[in-house]
Design a protein that fits this description.
This protein is an alpha/beta fold. It contains 14 helices and 15 strands. Bound molecules: nicotinamide-adenine-dinucleotide and uridine-5'-diphosphate-glucuronic acid.
């Protein structure tokens, strides 16, 4: 490790710690492990059922300088007696494990609720009982819909940020009716947030809750039929990437009118690093982590991804680059949507001085360059094999 002492935001030296990272093999976990290995002296106990996305960090033949600082434990937290022991061995637990693809919320609501609430319970309990710090990954979906979405379409108040900007300590959580099973995920995440908050208030649990706002980048989800199930529906970045790779129109659900703010995974990881290394500033807080400057409708996202992909692949644009599909057709019964998601940044700015840097165009350019490099050949091969057998 570099001999220059690393210091926290208050100028104090940072002591190396051991982190129990649950869900370390996923999209966010893989980027966090990479950062911790390449830039810090911390140790990681990486827990997951899969490790494909962190294989490059684990392979001994690469003889990484960090090989004694990362240890993979293949386990399912639903049923594994090793969990408490691993939490006890660490100074900090980070829980990322969850079902978090919207296509599952209304079609597998029980698995969604169990994964996001019931399975997270023992993690909270073991942290609380053993006096271990917890960073828990929640979601911006806990805000649900904006207050403004209930105003008449022509109301001038819809333009007033008071009706749509989402604040950790003020905004309500507005979900649809129970038949709209889309909200099973948000509701389970909300309840685990309330439980963690209560453990802090009643039993002194040291916790930080993260609410990511559409973090995107390389290694997010999967490309159906290549490194995931052919019928699987990942999140929008991977859906649109898959369409672009296969040269088929991007599907805009209900006209692509919903709005999102997208933040580059590498910017967001900087925020998590600040939380890890500044416990006194991060404990007992809930943080929005997003990029309010990168707002687009899903239609605009599709158009921008199409332009960027032309640039990175050198392939011409399709004559019909997008098509509209109904949400019922795409996701099935019980789907509903968040209309707009702008994170208020006051708390994370004040506590951690964090700001996102990367524009939407730039983050799409680096991400789609990765998608093209990683998948274009495999997709071509899969298409030619399918046409040979049909
Ligand atoms: N990516 C985002 O923008 C975003 C936004 C909001 C919230 N989040 C939250 O952040 C967390 C991580 O998200 P991600 O995008 O990295 O998702 P991901 O699906 O890529 O990663 C989750 C990982 O958890 C693992 N996991 C799930 N259940 C498990 C179990 N029972 N035992 C062991 N491992 C298990 C999965 O195998 C997967 O590798 C989730 O809690 C998600 O709800 C992410
Ligand atoms: O990433 C987040 O911050 C959170 O929000 C996501 O929810 P959402 O943004 O609705 O999920 P996406 O699949 O990324 O969809 C974004 C929008 O694109 C639309 N979409 C998706 C896929 C597609 O092919 N076409 C399309 O129009 C969806 O209907 C939705 O309006 C997921 O719930 C979580 O991963 C996470 O908690």
């Amino acid at each position: 490790m570099a001999s220059v002492a690393r210091v926290d935001l208050d100028g104090n030296p940072i002591k190396p710690i051991t982190i129990c990272m649950i869900g370390a093999g996923g999209f966010i976990g893989s980027h966090l492990c990479e950062k911790l290995m390449s830039e810090t002296p911390h140790k990681v106990l990486a827990l997951d059922v899969y490790n494909d996305k962190i294989k490059h960090l684990l392979e001994p033949e690469n003889a990484h300088p960090w090989s004694d600082r990362i240890q993979f434990h293949r386990l399912n937290i639903k049923q594994d007696s090793r969990l408490e022991g691993l939490i006890k061995m660490a100074d900090l637990t980070i829980n990322l494990a969850a079902i978090c693809t919207p296509a599952d919320y209304n079609t597998r609501p029980l698995d969604t609720i169990y994964s996001n609430f019931i399975d997270a319970l023992p993690v909270v309990k073991y942290c609380s009982e053993n006096n271990k710090r917890l960073i828990h990954f929640s979601t911006c979906e806990v805000y649900g819909k904006t207050i403004g979405s209930y105003l008449p379409k022509d109301s001038p108040l819809r333009q007033d940020p008071a009706y749509y900007v989402l604040k950790e300590d003020e905004s309500p959580c507005i979900f649809g009716s129970i038949e709209k099973q889309r909200w099973s995920y948000a509701c389970a995440k909300q309840l685990i947030e309330r439980l963690i908050y209560a453990e802090g208030a009643e039993n002194g649990l040291e916790f930080t809750i993260v609410r990511p706002f559409n973090w995107i980048g390389p290694r997010m989800d999967f490309i159906p039929g290549i490194d995931g199930p052919s019928e699987g529906v990942p999140r929008v970045l991977a859906c649109f990437s898959n369409n672009l790779l296969r040269r088929e129109p991007l599907k805009l659900v209900d006209g692509g009118q919903s709005q999102r703010t997208f933040v580059y995974i590498k910017d967001a990881i900087e925020a998590v690093m600040l939380m890890i290394e500044n416990p006194a500033r991060a404990n007992s807080h809930i943080f929005n982590v997003g990029n309010p400057n990168n707002e687009v409708t899903v239609r605009q996202l599709g158009e921008m991804m199409t332009e960027v992909y032309v640039k990175v692949s050198g392939e011409p644009k399709l004559e019909t680059p997008t098509i509209d599909v109904s949400s019922q057709e795409f996701y099935g019964v019980g789907y509903d949507d968040s209309d707009k998601r702008i994170p208020d940044m006051t708390i994370i700015n004040k506590q951690l001085g964090w700001n996102p840097k990367t524009s939407l165009w730039d983050l799409l350019e680096s991400t789609l360059t990765y998608q093209h490099r990683t998948y274009a050949e495999a997709v071509k091969k899969a298409i030619s094999q399918a046409s040979a057998t049909s």
